[in-house]
Design a protein that fits this description.
heterodimer, A: alpha/beta, two-stranded parallel ribbon, elongated, B: 3-stranded antiparallel β-sheet
Chain lengths: ~160, ~200
Amino acid sequence: MARRRSGDPEPTLFPFLSVLAAVMGTLILIISGMSQIALAQPKPRIDVERFHPQKKSPIYVECRRFGLRIFPDEPSAGEPVFVWNKDIGSPSSAWMKLSARLELDSTSYVMFLVRAEGVGSFERARDTISGTRVEFGYDPLFGDGEVRFRGKAREP
Amino acid sequence: MCLDSFLDIVTNVVGVLILVAVVTVLGAGDVAVSSGASATRSVDASAPRALFELSRSEVFFVDELRNGERVLLEVQRTHGDREISSDELVGTLAYADVGDRNHRVRAEQLPSGLAWLYALRASAEGETCEALVAPDSLFREKLSALPPGGFVYFVVHDDSFELFRCARDIARERGVEFGWHPVEGKSPLRLSVSGHLGRRVQ
């Protein structure tokens, strides 16, 4: 086995340490940056209640600046349908078809998710169902992130 | 100089940081705020209500009781004790400046009946989110003054959604029921005698 001669220079670990310290600094920067971004633009989350035969189930409609996004009956199962503001009152629009369906379907109601810039869309949609048998509720959506749906945890 | 133990610590720290960074980057999009969406329900018609208007990122108390008394006084001053028509009331309030330092009160004849118009004055001073948090804020004072069974109702203009979150959280914290209604732009409050929206809570 070869032995190091006493005259050989000792390998220094300082450059390696320097690289590690730089990596540490970069990682801290990345982590704090990503956390800031995530906290500044949180995604609104809706807790969807489990289906109950004796409870009315909501159909979620997001009110945006330029129109409505109608989510499927199972909101996380498919893509929403977009209805432009100018088409909200049109009989052939997805919104009017939904409201016609809900007039006959007493097991569901519309849950409007209203963004600050979508109050106009909400008012237009609400006007089309006022005086009908369609039931509705509304709740604000804060922030700019995409809305997400999550099954509500079972209540104790 | 022996750097072995120090290097050992540093490599461990870097390893942990890499792990945290990976988790943070992958999970950054999943930070979510629950909207608290819930269905609304009607409250008892006699339940006392504290009404607030949220505009210009400030909360303004709408003093329905005192302003009602002021309207009555103005009507008595201009018409005496005789009964007046709704058209006369609309005319009276169009000319006289009746209200408090936050709102000017008018009346409007709608197809469904008479409505009170509360126009926010340019000089009105409300409370910001920071002010609401203070223990001596007017908002908290009004919540404390609500008798049992009372509820709060917020009329939220589209420039004050974030403030609504603040006010709503305080009401929830104190166990006070609340309802709300969004309004586009700066249009004045319309409180219709036959309206039912202002008596629904979540």
